[in-house]
Amino acid sequence: VKNHGMASLFLDELLKVSRQFFALPLEEKLKCSIAEDFFNGYGNAAVIAGDHTLNWNDRLFLTVYPEEQRRLQVWPQTPLKFREVLHEFSLSLRKMLEVILKAMARSLGLKEDSFVKEHGEQGSIDTRFGIYPRCSRPDKVYGVHPHSDRSSITVLLSDINVPEGLHIQKDDQWFKVPVIPGALFVNLGDFAEVMSNGIFKSVAHRVVTNSERERFSVAAFCTPEPENEVGPINELISSNQPQLYKKFFALPLEEKLNYSAMEEDVYSGYGNSAVLAGAEDKPINWNYRLFRTVYPEDQRKIQFWPQKPQKFR
Ligand SMILES: O=C(O)CCC(=O)C(=O)O
Ligand SMILES: [Fe+2]
């Protein structure tokens, strides 16, 4: 995407503060270590060996929107301009997100604000600053494994000094994403696929490593409000286009009960959270939930994972 309202000089500045942050001594970076939410902050991507190739990068995650969810205690104080630049980036991202969601809706003949509404005013924007160090065995090691993003859209700024890094998959083939100075790359994520009832595809992508130069990137993941159980827009469901994605919590109770919490493992499963009345001034919990252990993989109880909606697993 070009003409996104962010000047080239500003994007250069964004990559510059990112480079400067990662160039700090480790003790300095560790001041921004992952916060108590296990998400915001500095850390490296999980390196899970086994028979998998590794992820080879360092990253700094910072939620920028809604503003009250910022955890400023892990926002870098050096370089000095970091916070200001990130704040400005967040304002531009908000505008860009709205323009893109509206354009996506129009392109499907929907009311302009269909996706904006599904997304909600308080949808989150999480930024991820990443560095992929030089790697002597690019044949063995990914920067990031093939995956799709959980976002509705992801906005990506790539290092203009490194012509190759990100690949996307189409028709079982991998394609290099070109790096165009001044442009941003927009990836559709899982929520775009769900909202559009499968018309938009959540694109599989990966990052390869490089033995010659390190690479930087800044990604911004835009995700619907967590309280919204997002589903396909009604107008996109018809007899020709059956609903591909259902809302788990909207399923009939009998169906949800197929995934009830299990006696031998009360943690994994669907059920409502304990309503502990007791002391009169304590509020009670009022929600439904489905717990499943996902890792380690050999502890998954796959027989109790929902088979509907089809994409759940
Ligand atoms: O660094 C990139 O080019 C993309 C990273 C990515 O796909 C991710 O963090 O989800
Ligand atoms: Fe991604």
Automatic annotation (TrEMBL):
Pfam short name (any one): DIOX_N
Single annotated GO MF: oxidoreductase activity
Fe2OG dioxygenase domain segment(s): 123-224
Keywords annotated in UniProt: Iron, Metal-binding, Oxidoreductase
Family: Belongs to the iron/ascorbate-dependent oxidoreductase family.
Protein name (database record): Fe2OG dioxygenase domain-containing protein
